[in-house]
Amino acid sequence: LAYSYYRMIGSTAALAQIGLISFAAVAQFAPAFFGGLVWKRGTARGAMAGVTTGFALWAYTLFLPSFADAGWIDSSLITQGPFGIGLLRPRMLFNLAFDPLTHGVIWSLLVNSAVYIAVSLFRAPSPIERMQAAVFVTRDIPLGTAPGFRLWRTAVTVGEVEATVARYLGTERTSRAFAEAATQRKVAHDPKVEADIRMLRFAEHLLASAVGTASSRLVMALLLERHSKNPRGAMKLLDDASTAIQYNRDLLQSAIDNVGQGIAVFDSEGKLICWNERFCSLLALPADMSRIGAPLEEVLDTMLRASGVEAARLPELRLDRLRKITSTHEPIIEHLGRRDMVLELRSSKMPEDSGYVVTFTDITQSVKAAEELKRANETLERRVQERTAELTRLNSELKRAKSQADAANLGKTRFIAAASHDILQPLNAARLFTASLVERKVRGSGGELARNIDASLGAVEDIFSALLDISRLDAGALKPEISAFLIDDLLNALKLEFAPAAAERGLRLTVVNSSLAVRTDRKLLRRVLQNLVSNAIKYTRSGHVLMGCRRRGESVRIEVHDSGPGIAEHNQAVIFHEFERLGQDKGIEPGLGLGLSIVERIAKMMKHPLHLISRPGHGSCFAITVPTAPRHELVETRPKIISRLDNRIGGLTIFVIDNEPQILEAMQALLGGWGARVVTARDVSEAHALFAAEGPSIDVILADYHLNRDDGIELIERLRGADGRMVPAILITADRSRLVQKRAAESAIQYLRKPVRPAALRAALAQFAAQAQAAE
User: Fold this and answer.
1) DSSP H/E element including 89
2) What is the pTM of this model?
3) Which of the pair, 545 or 241, is modelled with greater confidence?
4) Which of 141, 315, 622, 730 could form a disulfide with 145 if both were Cys (CB 3.0 to 4.6 A apart)?
5) What is the CATH superfamily name and number for domain 479-633?
């Protein structure tokens, strides 16, 4: 239309003139727009009348003359007026001469405003217009204003407004809301009082929270229109309300139709009043069931038949489902076997017992997944049971094998102990005989032969001692006795012990003194260091052997260094195996390779870390780490000093008890050679008889532990009891158990192992002789 106008008059009118005419047309909305904002009496009909009149005058004074200027109509209409009436000339109405644009704008807006005001004053505003005017124009009445003052009055009471809102929100919620509103406004909540604008606005806002803004406004308009005298306005409001309600219902229906669940709403009598398409498809309801008023019982019957329920059970199951839906609201899981579907039904009660909402959810996939999971769990459980049974069987077999191994190990230990006793008995006798020969200083080849035999027997003794130690360590029969002592005492004792051997090989043995105290088994640590120092001396051809300690926090590392040939890295684990010796070169003393095996077992038993650092050509360093001890835990021990042994043993009477005749003969020869008087007995009865005869003259008792079926410790205690004095005694036995050693110590009996070393026996006897002389 604008383009057509431009094509018609564009050649005679400037573009700016066309724009000004357009702005004058738009200005016709100004009176109604601004009047509605500031004047509460303005009505819709007044606005429409004013705008229409304004546009008519705009067309007569501005729009029509532009066509005359373009030559489309006769210009006499402009110069003479219609029908020759000069007062109605478009550009000089009533002979008022202005600029053409100003003339048209003034007349059109003036008449527009006048008609808007006149019509609005002539016709009273409708209720909804009054509400809108109150919302946009009227301000709230101050709290101090008298209650009787109203901006406008209606016949609607607070009770009627409350009843209308309660239909949508429920009686309880509505009553509570209106009571709180009255309390906040500090006015009495009287249902008979006429509702003012603030109450109506509150009711509209309350309704909007439930039904939306448009619907709440329509509801309030209908309430007010019932008291109006304009039936046409009421009908229009009813039409608008019906349209809004239908729109809301269509919107709600569209929303629930797009929900994945089936939804059905039943009234308090169990009649279907609302549903979605998913509800019909899930239950496969026939067409006659998809209607308002369909009974809930028929819906349940259709569902139960799809589940494959027999006709005889149908009433019972229907009542159960009805009870769960209407009373208990428990979830219902329904398996529709004929359709291979599983439905979950959940129900909830609507406000004020107005009905029930039931949802139908297809949980077929979830149920199948749960069944698959259950089967997988059952399979897994079965496999776990099978594996558990297999593990139980294996554990039983392992336990049985361990028991058999323990029994075999115990049998081996007992066998070794018994065999060692039987072997050590003749070995002990042979060692005593050779010692007797050596000490008699036989001249010539016989003396040399005796010394060689004694050295060989000493080597055999060392071998048996190592084998027995390994056996006891493997069997767990060796238990450590932990005590605190100065490590320097042990190092100095080892220096005294190995200095002659080192000097014999031309080596320098050095011990670095230390003031540290350690907590460990003194005897076992001594055995470890003895083996390490002995190996260092054996494998070092020239140079030196060094012993010392390094502090490592709460521990001390005892190291043995040598300048030997060193050990290759691939051999450093091999040397701790039994019977493994790396060096067999000339200048290296022979051996069986059991020392380091014993060292490793003792270190592992006492949980002391063992270290080896070595490189070929650079010597070796063996080290063991033991915990330190505070000095206040030390137990003072003083070495026993024995001197002038020969002079003190000569006058002793020694009572020797052993069940082996060879050992008795050897003891007779050895002790007799030392100048002692020897009395021998082979069993307990003979010992009692001889002791009864020789008792007062006997100075020392030497007894074996195993005397056929008798016990050497018990025999010594009985002999002491018979004599009435604490006769010094030495237990000489091949039994190396800690129990025997403990019993001997508790009975004040000195303990010596078979095969007994003559030097150790001589030292013990000299100590007894020294004690006897000191007592005299």
Assistant:
1) strand 88-89
2) 0.40
3) 545
4) 141
5) Histidine kinase-like ATPase, C-terminal domain (3.30.565.10)
